Amino acid sequence: MISINKLRKEFDQGVVALDSIDLEIRDTEFVALLGPSGCGKSTTLNCIAGLLDVTSGQVMFDDADVTNKAPKDRNIGMVFQSYALYPHLKVIDNIAFPLKQKGVSKEERHKKAREMAVKLQIEHLLDRKPTQLSGGQQQRVAMCRALVKEPKILLLDEPMSNLDARLKIEIREVIKKIQQELKVTSIIVTHDQEEAMAIADKIAILDNGRIQQYDTPEMLYQYPANLFVANFMGNPPMNFIDAKLETAGEKLMFTIGESSVEVSGQLLEKLRPHTGRPVKLGVRSHQIRVGAEPAANTLPMEVQMVENLGKELLLSGDVHGCHVRVSVDDTSASGRMKALVGDSEKRVYLRFADFINVFDSETKVNLVL
Ligand SMILES: Nc1ncnc2c1ncn2[C@@H]1O[C@H](COP(=O)(O)OP(=O)(O)OP(=O)(O)O)[C@@H](O)[C@H]1O
Ligand SMILES: [Mg+2]
């Protein structure tokens, strides 16, 4: 298990890169650190690896406090954001290098290096030097080198940033498979939410040196803790509709422009204490039903675009000044929907699913968790 307690990292000139990071990673788990550029992902990873001194806080591997241990004493395999390969060594010797340090015979370490190279689709490059490789090929060499020594902990910093979209998907499947075979506790840094969701058991979302939420991909997607996480997870992104929570007699309503939608079901008790607050309704494109006629508790949308994505239609348009995307399963409705585009006489009417997320517009916190 890796536990990080109250980790803080300040650089010169008062740059606070990490502010009280707590993270617990169980054995054999695969965790992704996800967030925008500059949020502190690499700094976190480098503190775990021992490449950076921490300002305060603690890094534990099982029961051992490794906060002040040298990187070489941590039994870590690491792939850096800028892959540092040995320029004078052939690819095969770059990969086999950690085994050489361990005193493994040449024959044995070349055999292992070759096996790993096959898995990462670079076996045809083994006799080249790093300068004769593309960026993506160099990244895979670095990955082979990190994996070949079968480390206890694997740390990957944007290991696939230089691969094309298709190879990215192939290689991330390979990494996941090797990680499961070797049962190695792993942390991957990425700014790609799709990659994080595909590969990781749990994701820590960082912003500004702080963890915003740490949970499974499913939980982050369905129940984001705040607007930052909600904005980051999912494609197409979550829709946000500005509303106000108001009472109408006994009822609680979302007031949206001139429309109002009754709050019902499990949301009612959660939201009642926040009556009067300005909120943002967080609604995924598939949490909306589309109708042709106005009805109670529906919202009018002026359709601006209809895209046929093959398995579904994506309608986008304006709902009281907010841009909204809705998916419609029935692609056979394409012609009918396209006829609505730009026709203000024939709007569509949206109805929300029973559960949606509701964020306080000012504190940005999810009010329904
Ligand atoms: N050596 C350094 N000296 C001063 N500031 C630094 C140093 N290294 C990083 N920082 C700052 O710390 C913050 C976090 O940087 P970090 O490299 O961890 O970001 P990141 O999340 O990995 O971003 P990216 O996705 O761009 O790689 C940034 O504001 C960065 O400018
Ligand atoms: Mg980085």
TrEMBL record:
Record key words, sorted: ATP-binding, Cell membrane, Membrane, Nucleotide-binding, Transport
The cross-references to CDD domains, in alphabetical order and at most eight, read: ABC_Carb_Solutes_like
Organism, by scientific name, is Hungatella effluvii
InterPro entries linked: AAA+_ATPase, ABC_transporter-like_ATP-bd, ABC_transporter-like_CS, ABC_transpr_FbpC, ABC_transpr_MalK/UgpC-like, Mo/tungstate-bd_C_term_dom, NA-bd_OB-fold, OB_MalK-like
Q: What are the recorded GO MF terms, alphabetically?
A: ABC-type ferric iron transporter activity; ATP binding; ATP hydrolysis activity
Q: What's an example GO cellular component term for this entry? A: ATP-binding cassette (ABC) transporter complex, substrate-binding subunit-containing
Residue ranges occupied by any ABC transporter domain in the UniProt entry: 2-233
Lineage: superkingdom: Bacteria
Name this polypeptide is given: Carbohydrate ABC transporter ATP-binding protein (CUT1 family)
Q: State the organism's lineage.
A: Bacteria, Bacillati, Bacillota, Clostridia, Lachnospirales
